[in-house]
UniProtKB/TrEMBL annotation, chain A:
Entries under Gene3D superfamilies matching the protein: 2.40.50.100, Nucleic acid-binding proteins (2.40.50.140)
Listed InterPro entries: Csl4, EXOSC1_C, Exosome_cplx_N_dom, NA-bd_OB-fold, S1_domain
Biological processes per GO annotation: rRNA processing
Lineage: Eukaryota, Metazoa, Chordata, Craniata, Vertebrata
Pfam families, A to Z: ECR1_N (PF14382), EXOSC1 (PF10447)
Name used for this protein in its record: Exosome complex component CSL4
Gene Ontology CC: cytoplasm; nuclear exosome (RNase complex); nucleolus
From TrEMBL, chain B:
Pfam families: RNase_PH (PF01138), RNase_PH_C (PF03725)
Domain Exoribonuclease phosphorolytic, chain residue ranges per copy: 22-141, 146-209
Gene: exosc5
PANTHER family assigned: EXOSOME COMPLEX COMPONENT, EXOSOME COMPLEX COMPONENT RRP46
Protein's name in the database: Exosome complex component RRP46
Length: 194, 230
């Protein structure tokens, strides 16, 4: 079993007397050439000659599903909802950013009518949220932070320093000691050891 | 050691012999009334008219929450912008993004419009120089200035700085570099044709040497302009 060999488009792989061309290759003047950049794969499919093909690193695009815990960055705020960009699904980073919405009613589970969005999130905050719906025609995911483990995990103060959570609704700047309102996520035990 | 010394000496002689000669260039600022900043830049017979608008309101789809969005439009002399203009726009936009302090204007847009008045070679260099003068005229905060020099390599291997359109057509390689004013680093490079690594290094050295003249011209024109205002 030879190690995986890299190839680039236009590279001559072998002769037609040795292999049969597969996907990602083409035939010219009795030789098989690569038409893709990737790994050379040689496979015996029961015929007398093996099939040679070029495969690329086809990572399946991970989509947020209902119930998934996602990591988002808040982009804009208005009194009814917060717009976010979904960056991670679980611990897997996404190649493209998806847009999501955290409605005012989904910020916390209690006292829903007293929620003020600008006291829960600020633009630039990193938020843990859960997907509750795939959204509407604008393809915005609907997210919720109405659990103790969901909410803001990283926030920066006006002085630019990363703030420290002091309660479930407040964060404090270590430099200026000013407090700002946030819907704070409960700190996980594995991060307390660090 | 001796071979290296001889090679360095030969390279220095070649650099001195091919001391970069730029065509006559000139510039004027604040010549348009509507834009926030405007300038024209002339290199030989190549002429570009630049206008800068902003900071202004940005579309929701192009909004970036922590910095400004830079948009560059290049209008050719005749016809509509095509793929060639789009490629040049990308070069100019990325150079401007590297020089401007965009974090001071979040959620806004800066628009640079470059109108080609005449094209006689080194068009991308003239666009970049006109854009830099226009950004200075608009008063936008920048971390550094930039200027651009084009080098053409003829079929005999001779390096021509600031080539004309005919010299560009007859050359086998064309290299354009954007040089910054702080450390003379290369901010952007755009190349076509075939050349060797030594020729690339020589072109970069010649461009860095030629950029001294353009930066001195920037300084002189700004000095003259602000001394006249007193």
């Amino acid at each position: 079993m030879s190690p995986m060999k890299l190839c680039v488009p236009g590279e001559r792989l072998c002769s037609t007397e040795d292999c049969i061309p597969g996907t990602g290759t083409y035939l010219r003047h009795g030789y098989i050439f690569a038409s893709l950049a990737g790994y050379v794969l040689r496979k015996n499919e029961g015929e007398e000659l093996p099939v040679i093909s070029v495969v690329r690193e086809t990572e399946a695009q991970l989509l947020p599903d209902v119930g998934a815990i996602v990591t988002c960055k808040v982009t804009s705020i208005n009194p009814r909802f917060a717009k976010v960009h979904i960056l991670y699904v679980g611990s897997t980073p996404l190649k493209d950013r998806f847009r999501g919405t955290i409605r005012r009613e989904d910020v916390r589970a209690t006292e829903k009518d007293k929620v003020e969005t600008y006291k829960s999130f600020r633009p630039g905050d990193i938020v843990l949220a859960k997907v509750i719906s795939l959204g509407d025609v604008q393809s915005n995911y609907l997210l919720t932070t109405a659990e103790n483990e969901l909410g803001v995990v990283v926030a920066h103060s006006e002085a630019g320093a990363q703030m420290v959570p002091v309660s479930w609704c407040e964060m404090q700047c270590p430099r200026t000691h000013s407090k700002e309102f946030r819907k704070v996520a409960r700190v996980q035990p594995e991060y307390l050891q660090a | 050691m001796d071979a290296t010394s001889r090679l360095c000496m030969r390279t220095e002689m070649e650099l001195e012999r091919s001391c970069p000669v730029l065509r006559e260039y000139g510039s004027e600022q604040s010549l348009l009334s509507r834009p926030d900043g405007s300038s024209t830049f002339v290199q030989g017979d190549t002429s570009i008219l630049a206008g800068v608008y902003g900071p202004a309101e940005v579309k929701v789809s192009k909004e970036i929450y922590d910095r400004a969005t830079v948009e560059v439009l290049i209008q050719p002399k005749m016809g509509l912008p095509s793929v060639r203009e789009r490629a040049r726009e990308q070069c100019v936009r990325e150079t401007c993004e590297a020089a401007l302090l965009l974090t001071l204007h979040p959620r806004s847009s800066l628009t640079v419009i470059l109108q080609v008045v005449h094209d006689d070679g080194s068009l991308l260099s003239c666009c970049l120089n006109a854009a830099c003068m226009a950004l200075m005229d608009a008063g936008l905060p920048m971390s550094r200035l930039f200027c651009s020099v084009t080098c053409a390599i003829s079929k005999e291997g001779q390096i021509i700085t600031d080539p004309t359109a005919r010299q560009e057509k007859e050359s086998r390689a064309l290299l354009t570099f954007a040089i910054d004013s702080n450390e003379r680093n290369v901010l952007m490079s755009s190349t076509t044709g075939s050349f060797s690594v030594q020729e690339l290094q020589q072109c970069i050295a010649i461009s860095q040497k030629a950029s001294e003249q353009i930066f001195q011209f920037y300084r002189d024109s700004v000095k003259r302009r602000y001394s006249k205002m007193q």
